[in-house]
Specification:
With 236 residues, this protein is an alpha/beta fold. It contains nine helices and eight strands.
């Protein structure tokens, strides 16, 4: 079945998140949808939500700690309150905007791996690397696996070309196919595509060989669009 994930980034409030999750849950239940569905709300909107078994709420980020003196961060004490056991790690916005190094990302990965969390691990290249061709692109991507145990059983990968995130520019089907095929040859884990995925193109993208689903930002923030995205991919 397809894996469809929504990353809220810095969007939605506690109230609108609860409405969104409840509405998606009702749809999954009513239509008996079997796809694996994930939503990653802001830290302030995390809560204990009653959801179907195939609908999982995760955290966009957390520090590699239970608790402590890390201003502005959350740890497992906060996540445990809401029984959250799923985390996004390595998103390009945390790498490129917030300056997370591969060392820090690998520490975080190891910490949450040891706790048995489901990890969606993000990889991807900026435009100047893409423009150097597929070999340089793969070289850059494989560096993002340094310190990462890719045999971890609870791992989902997400390939997100940085130049396609929130820009409206989607990678071509050939771009996606070439990178996904290469990664899958090395690492046999579910592999999502992310980067300007929309209602209109999600089905076509998810039909590309070795694309196991999508991690979606902007186009998933309206609940009716997110439901349509799940609807468009439910039989894949």
């Amino acid at each position: 079945m397809s894996i469809i994930a929504s990353n809220f980034k810095t969007n939605h409030t506690r109230k609108s998140t609860a409405l969104f999750i409840n509405e998606v849950n009702e749809y999954l239940k009513k239509e008996n949808i079997l796809s694996e569905v994930y939503v990653f709300p802001t830290a302030t909107s995390l809560d204990f939500f009653e959801t179907e078994a195939n609908f999982i709420v995760g955290t966009q980020n957390a520090y590699a700690t239970a608790s402590g003196s890390f201003t502005g961060e959350i740890g497992t004490v906060q996540l445990d309150e809401f029984e959250i056991k799923t985390i996004l790690i390595g998103h390009s916005e945390r790498r490129h905007i917030l300056g997370e190094t591969q060392d820090l990302i690998a520490q975080k990965y190891e910490f949450y791996k040891n706790l048995g969390y489901k990890i969606i691990y993000c990889i991807g290249e900026p435009l100047e690397v893409k423009n150097q061709g597929i070999e340089k692109t793969l070289e850059y991507i494989y560096e993002q696996f340094v310190g990462i145990d890719t045999n971890y059983e609870n791992l989902i990968l997400a390939y997100e070309p940085v130049w396609a995130i929130g820009t409206g520019v989607t990678a071509t089907n050939d771009d996606i196919k070439n990178v996904h095929n290469a990664i899958k040859e090395k690492i046999n884990k579910p592999l999502l595509y992310g980067g300007s995925v929309k209602v209109e193109n999600v089905r076509e993208i998810c039909q590309i060989p070795n694309v196991d689903g999508a991690l979606i930002g902007t186009a998933s923030w309206k609940v009716e669009d997110f439901i349509q995205i799940i609807e468009n991919t439910k039989d894949l």
